[in-house]
Amino acid sequence: MQSMDTNTPASTGKATHTVSFSQDGESFLLDGEPFQIRSGEMHPARIPADYWQHRILMAKAMGMNCIALYVMWNYHETSPGTFDFRTGNRDIEAFIRLCQQEGMWVLLRPGPYICGEWDLGGIPWYLLSDPDIQLRTDSAHDPRYMSAVARYIRELSPCIEPLLVNRGGPILMIQIENEFGSYAANPAYLEEIRQLWLQEGIQGPFYTEDGIRQLEQNRTNVSGGAIALSNGDAEQIAAVRQQFPAVPAMAGEVYPGWLTHWGDETFNGTAADISATLDAFMQRKLSFNLYVIHGGTSFGFYAGANVDADSGEYQPDITSYDYAAPISEQGVATSKYMKYRGVIGRYLSTPLPEIPQPVPTISRKGSRALMPELYASVWDNLPAALPAAQTVDPQPFEMYGQAFGFALYRKTLQGYRGGVLDIKEVHDYATVFIGEQYVGGVSRAWMPEHHAQPLNVMHHAPLVLPPVSSSQEREVSMEILVEGMGRVNYGHAMLDRKGLLEPVTLTEAGDSSDTLTGWEVFLLPMDAAFIANLRAVCANPRKAGLFFKATLSLDTLGDTYLDMHRWTKGVVWVNGNNLGRYWNIGPQKRLYCPAPWLRLGDNEIIIFDLHQMEAKPVELARTLS
């Protein structure tokens, strides 16, 4: 039983098409004929723009005829009202036109909420500066949220409208929100989003995405919209068709791998095999989307987090979004890729395209490894403290107008004699100093004991502070350096602000607890401007919170991974580009650096580590593990 695509999106952008649904709801129709959507998902925000074409062609060579993509709202509106849909890998229109150029259709998934193991599920951080904000709800419940959504859709629509199939573009359908059935039952909210698109002249077709149980329970489809199923298979499609006979259904997220959190024993999803699922789709000509065919990387501070439904534990996502996908983080065709390509190819009447050549890689090991040197101290690069009126009690980043990075909270203690420090809500990782001495840390995320114990890092527990080395009571400075990790991107824990969320208390020996007020607060966004303006000063090289620097000299370019397994916890920049977080609790120990971020000659590597005071070699490797 073979199938063949009779229509492809015209690379000129002049030929128009129509997408509709059969009257019995059995099929997606392209120009009136039944059409099987074979989609592979990838995210432009997670792929350097230089590699977009390569990854699209990789998907095509595996038998896909469509690319699904999220638009991460917070990646395009980084501050209120300031949008960027045009530069670098934020140029959504360029990515979609490239899909069209390579003969691929597009499923657009613009949110406003997308989940995606992405910070706050793609919703902008600044909304959390309203203490009582409600997210993912209609105007009647929170007009502030929906006003921001409306602004986003108004800004995105002019980029999208010319790319719809009825305008000669490749976009087949637009998704309304994402997996809302896992969050709530509120038809008014989904309909309000649909109406916002209609007001901008975008008529769809629309579709929704949910797990089958959540869809059945909360009825989160939209008027006239198709239905996509998370973790869907042929049997679930048949079941949904019985309940919703008027519109077609597809498997909207078929998982060839899975996500990984910091502290997991290994990379998840490597044992998954969806060959039988793909075979059933192809045999029955059912439409599907592989989530993800290629994951890429959550560069910078954009990796999200979960909260475990049973334990309530915070689970931040690793930087890599390899996802054990058929196309690896670095763009390599894995054994899964070859297997699935074979399954799909058996049902097609024309041969699949040749697999694109892999991107070259470089490595350096042993004596050729990088040897960073001490460069600067965060303590010698503090900005001016915030006005005292804002810092009587410590507040989270968002209340100070900061999106990502770190913040330092400083308090002078009078007559300090040691005691027990209780930081009830640290989001998400804090190192604590008394005077110039590191005395321990607090981690919101669970840490394996063999990593936590040497650093005296407590998990949600009070921290015992030592007395100062003097028999006299004295004045001493206490400093709490807080790292905000990924905001929760799924479920009702999404109101996830960063920094110190509640008052800090100190209990000294034999005394009652005192709530500490009157802080100095220093914002450390660790953005490109902050790193570019670092002063190479380090007054105390024995006080953790240090920057290290290495020069990588290259006479040829290629992708590489920086192996950080000898380091503790921090962030790496290459020529000013933030590769993301590393953490020795693993399982990720290497950070992907794409060749377009390197240059011939000297390259600057900057490492910020929260604990390390001694530089260690950094090898360059060709693979994630």
TrEMBL record:
Molecular function GO labels: beta-galactosidase activity
Pfam families named among the record's database cross-references: BetaGal_ABD_1, BetaGal_gal-bd, Glyco_hydro_35
Superkingdom, natural source: Bacteria
Domain (Beta-galactosidase 1-like first all-beta): residue spans on this chain: 394-524
Catalytic activity entry: Hydrolysis of terminal non-reducing beta-D-galactose residues in beta-D-galactosides
Domain Beta-galactosidase galactose-binding: 546-603
Boundaries of every Glycoside hydrolase 35 catalytic domain copy: 27-345
Keywords: Glycosidase, Hydrolase
Keyword Cell wall biogenesis/degradation included in the entry's annotation: no
UniProt-listed PROSITE patterns: GLYCOSYL_HYDROL_F35
Stored InterPro entries: B-gal_1-like (IPR026283), BetaGal1-like_ABD1 (IPR048912), BetaGal_gal-bd (IPR048913), Galactose-bd-like_sf (IPR008979), GH (IPR017853), Gly_Hdrlase_35_cat (IPR031330), Glyco_hydro_35_CS (IPR019801), Glycoside_Hdrlase_35 (IPR001944)
Protein name: Beta-galactosidase
Organism name: Paraburkholderia monticola
